[in-house]
Amino acid sequence: MVGQRPQMANGLYWVKGEIEHSLGRMRTALEHFLEEPGQTQHLDVAAEELRLVHGTVGMIQCFGAAALADEMLQLLQDLRGAKPARMMEALSALTGASLHLSDYVDLLVHGESDRAVVLQPVINELRLARGKPLLTEAELFAAHLRTLEPAAIPSEQPPRGGEAVQNVARRELPAFQMAFVQWFRGQNTDAAMARMGKIADAIAVNTAHPELRETWSGYAVLAECLRGDLQFDSLDLKRLFGRAGTLLKRLVDAGETVAGGEVGDTPQQLLFHIARASRQTERSQALLASRRIAELLPPVEQLDELRRRLRGPNTSILARVHAEIGRDFATVKDGIDLAVRTGGRNTGDLAATRERLLRLANTLGALGLPPPQQALLNQARLLENPPRTPLAWMDMATAILRVEHSLEEALFRALGRHGAEPARPYAEIEAEVPHAQDLRESTKALLRESMVDLAHLKAAVDAYLKNGDAAAFADAPRMLNEVAAGLLILGHPRATTSLRKLESYARLGTLVTAETAHAEFERFADAISCVEVYLEALRDGLPQPERILDDLEDYIARLDFRPPKPAVVPAPAAVE
Length: 576
Known about the structure:
With 576 residues, the chain is an all-alpha fold. It is built from 24 helices and no strands. Helix 7 packs antiparallel against helix 8.
């Protein structure tokens, strides 16, 4: 029965978490299938999770969610052996449908009625990916209504049935056919519609078959609503009244039992068109109220708003998808940063980074975002032969950061493309994203890592001064090189030059010789402290950090860059 909204909301409340987890696992399985298209076991996992969802919403008698899950299951089945181009279309439709399904359940939990027509656009996307005919709103509404307990339409007088109704049908068939042709051609439409309505009433009051009585009563009420209306131009309505002519002829030829068994979803489709008619009568209003149609079929404006809510950017599941992608980007950035610091020598980590980039690209493709997908594919391709210069690494890091920072709007707009605002081209969104040196979050992360290196270097200097441990100072050139590389990526060439000089000084080994004066250590320590202050100024956005470089260059100029003298080995004593 219609009107079980509180019970449904309560039931879905307790299983909503499991539904979302199953849909999340389904999306993960689809991502794995994208990475390994030949491994159909990933499709098996996705189908199993979706069957759990289908069974759960079916148990709670949530027709809309069950209908969407059923279409998704059929598309998953068709994915086996699908061609690559169609595969991407299908996976994109499945990913979008999983988001809709989760949001639809959320709407029901918060008190909305189960209205399958809300899901018609996404169901048709799935059917389009399968190459199946699209469903009209009337067909989807009718399928939903047929699952509910039917409500009989009372007749105005006791029906006679049998030969009586067949005789009425035989007598009125030519007149109905003539009226239909006139209405179809737009000739004297009001009178033609009135004639069809009168004949429909005559059949309804004379038949004993409940389905036939419901059908012809529906035709009579719809004819009242359409009189004086221009809706006869609707192809769906023309087909519906054409079906009436077929049913009437079937009643003449085979009797009401056979004709009644062939009405199908006609009574429900009639209710849909009655509810959507611009002109309502007392009879139509009473019929719609008795069947509580408003709970299944909201007004057009409300229906559009519900669809916008499903497609809009404020959905929790979409936020979780964005968060998952963000974690993948963080891992990729860590891999690129490590590659920069090691000069690309750690090929194992680079291989893992490349695989993650490919996975991210596949995910974006499945979400219907081909431009950012291609941007990531380009960077993954570059990692097959890693860059050899800091500038090339900087270009790669910038490209990845630009995709990440432009992704939020691109993702939400792509999946909200039926909302109020039109989707913007990705290139336009990307153009608004600042360059790498202005990406504050990433900049702070890189500066933080550089300051960690300097802290280790200062500790090494202290250890050498306290106990003469030269081994603690052995990593100084490497750490200075990494700080210099980070400053180059951030676009600070003057600071990079100063750090390169300090790196060269550390490689001389002057500080670990016995002849080095204590003042030389102090000058080196002052230079390191100056670099640390400069990095803090960059991190905190202090004005004119370049002034600190003046002091740094002064400290560096006072260092002794002469190579240490080789140790003199005393000559052996002469043997007498």
